[in-house]
């Protein structure tokens, strides 16, 4: 095969054309007879771009015996286009747009946070996932949501939760990220894309408060020595990502326990109830109807005590063994 690489010396951030051609040359199944580079600004490059409908620079054009079975798989791995007479490999971002000469895929990122909110979730993992996906972030900074700049972005980008991340339009140069944007109904506003926290706790700007901090109440029966350990529920809540603000334990015979028994029609102990903020955890809310109920005041009441182990039936006063 023969290889021609088209590169743009103005784009230091772009994938090197030599890197693309090396992927071909270094493959054991290829025999490259000649390889040369032409600059994007040259007449030859313009002709090649027009002839082969190239959109992204750097690009590599390979001619010769590129349709043999032992190398066809390579073109698939490189995302190449196989035409009648050539195979064309175009750069992944960042790259130069072959039509207008603009650099694309150089992303600016602004994180909007409330540093006074020690319990708020973080967008760090989201940003890290972008970097791991190969996104080239050339500008990254953090601003407080109370600042004038942040408030302007919150308004223009229709941000409803804090923390949030605002990305420049260059993010759509990345095919996988563009698909994610489409799947999540991401909307471009004034050349920017915004994503806010999806995992509680976060600051809900419409409600004007922090949501997703859950208060948990364990209800026990001290007379039942064989009853299951009610604190097992904590590990289950944590597996659903629940952020627990505080925990309280009441014996069913106490005044507080008796009030809760009457208020929520508790018939079996041990059990737990937790505050309405549990509704902000989508996976937990989805599974909850199979194990419990939600009261009119929004509190979650666990009902499937038999699934946890030995418990006491308050109606009969009998201890029911998990083995029975």
Can you describe this structure?
With 324 residues, the chain is an alpha+beta fold. It folds into three domains: 96 residues, Glutaredoxin; 100 residues, Glutaredoxin, CATH 3.40.30; 109 residues, Glutaredoxin. It contains nine helices and 23 strands. A five-stranded mixed beta sheet has the order 2-1-4-6-5, sandwiched between helices. Strand 20 and strand 21 form a beta hairpin. The model has no long low-confidence stretch (mean pLDDT 92).
What would the keywords be for this entry?
single chain, 324 residues, alpha+beta, Glutaredoxin, 3 domains, five-stranded mixed sheet, elongated
What is the overall silhouette?
A: elongated
Distance between the termini: 75 Å
Strand order of the largest sheet: 2-1-4-6-5
What is the average of the pLDDT values? 92
Q: What's the main sheet like? A: 5 strands, mixed
CATH class of the largest domain: Alpha Beta
What is the helix fraction of residues, given as a range? Answer: 10-25%
Beta-strand portion reads 25-35%
Strands, count:
23
Structural class: alpha+beta
What's the tally of helices? 9
Number of domains: 3
Q: What is the CATH architecture descriptor of the largest domain? A: 3-Layer(aba) Sandwich
How large, in whole angstroms, is the Cα Rg?
30 Å
How are the elements arranged and paired?
Elements (H helix, E strand, L loop, with lengths): L1 E6 L9 H9 L8 E6 L3 H10 L3 E2 L1 E5 L5 H9 L3 E2 L3 E5 L4 E3 L5 E2 L1 E8 L10 H9 L3 E9 L3 H9 L4 E2 L1 E5 L6 H9 L8 E5 L5 E3 L4 E3 L1 E8 L11 H8 L3 E9 L3 H10 L3 E2 L1 E4 L7 H6 L4 E3 L5 E3 L8 E3 L4 E3 L4
Parallel strand pairs: 1-2, 9-10, 16-17
Antiparallel strand pairs: 1-4, 3-7, 4-6, 5-6, 7-8, 9-12, 11-14, 12-13, 14-15, 16-19, 18-22, 19-21, 20-21, 22-23
